[in-house]
Design a protein that fits this description.
CATH topology of the largest domain: Rossmann fold
Strand order of the largest sheet: 2-1-3-4
Low-confidence stretches: none
Number of helices: 15
Mean pLDDT: 94
Structural class: alpha/beta
Helix content: 40-55%
Radius of gyration: 20 Å
Oligomer: single chain
Distance between the termini: 40 Å
CATH class of the largest domain: Alpha Beta
CATH superfamily of the largest domain: NadA-like
Length: about 325
């Protein structure tokens, strides 16, 4: 079994390192069968998780949708805490586990429910669009949620002249450039994407003539403007698969490029990237422990869950 599992990651993990991963991988696969469990893995997870033990992979929107369709008894979220909360919201009768409670998010930590209430008081009657990168308590204060992949559709689906969009200021500014809807932003930022600069893009083009630059919409607007394409992680992966660029750089978290190289062997990925310290808290070892010990079960206050679930459900209804 170990040899066949190694095949998808042999170009990413040196053979000398594989024996360190194989025992945990084989144990996790066994535990999944025994416990009727599935593992949801975000695109920012490391290759040994993404390719070897995950059942469902994707961006936050894809994981939110797929979490609703699984018939497993246990969901393990190989991602950050707000993603595990979202999975629990949409699967209240299932056990949802997060392998590390400290796997947080700078965006989720940038805003509180009290902040949302203050925004509502300042702008009465203006609907609140909450990015999924928020706590369940913040989602409960919102009218609807969005992801980077569907934010524009969500904003325009409301049919209003202006909205409050939080907490990512850059995502809000980048969406505002694509719509006539006035967007009132909050000043939160992703610690991964905010570090990219337009000067870095210019340097990449100088060093790699003809390179295609793809940027996540959580990047600063000047970075998005300097890129050839901006989109969610799923949209970036789709662009590479569809357009087959000879050389590309993904301005997002480091593991994203690792995870799509196997499906795009003809593309050369240039890799100046930023690590997400929160995503990297999820490891094979703590996924295994989560399944062995039911460690870190996600529980949500029922009163909050009802309101937050409505906001997420409204997002999922937007097509």
């Amino acid at each position: 079994m170990s040899a066949s599992l190694y095949e998808p990651v042999r170009h990413l993990i040196p053979p000398i390192e594989w024996p360190a991963f194989a025992p945990d991988i084989e144990a996790i696969l066994r535990l999944k069968r025994e416990r009727n469990a599935v593992i949801l893995a975000h695109n920012y997870q490391t290759p040994e998780i993404y390719h070897c033990v995950a059942d469902i992979t994707g961006d936050s929107l894809a994981l939110a949708r797929e979490a609703m369709t699984t018939d497993a008894d246990i969901i393990v979220m190989a991602g950050v805490h707000f993603m595990a909360e979202t999975a629990k919201l949409m699967n209240p009768d299932k056990t949802v586990l997060i392998p590390d409670l400290e796997a947080g998010c700078s965006l989720a930590e940038s805003i509180t429910p009290a902040d949302v209430r203050l925004m509502r008081a300042k702008y009465p009657g203006v609907p609140v669009v909450a990015y999924v990168n928020t706590s369940v308590a913040v989602k409960a204060e919102a009218d609807i949620c969005c992801t980077s992949g569907n934010a524009l559709k969500v904003v325009e689906s409301l049919g209003v002249p202006r909205v409050i969009m939080l907490p990512d200021e850059y995502l809000a500014q980048n969406i505002a450039r694509q719509t006539k809807v006035e967007i009132i932003a909050w000043a939160g930022h992703c610690e991964v994407h905010q570090r990219f600069t337009a000067a870095e893009v210019a340097g990449l083009r100088a060093d790699h003539p003809g390179i295609i630059v793809l940027a996540h919409p959580e990047c600063p607007p000047e970075v998005v403007a300097a890129a050839d394409y901006a989109g969610s992680t799923a949209e970036m992966a789709g662009f590479v698969a569809r357009e087959r660029p000879a050389r590309v750089v993904l301005l997002t978290e480091c593991s994203m490029a690792d995870n799509i190289t196997a499906a795009n062997p003809a593309t050369d990925f240039v890799r100046p990237c930023n690590l997400c310290p929160h995503m990297k808290r999820i490891t094979l070892a703590n996924i295994r422990t989560a399944l062995e010990q039911n460690r870190h079960e996600v529980r949500i206050d029922p009163a909050l869950a009802v309101r937050a679930r409505d906001a997420v459900a409204r997002m999922l209804a937007v097509r």
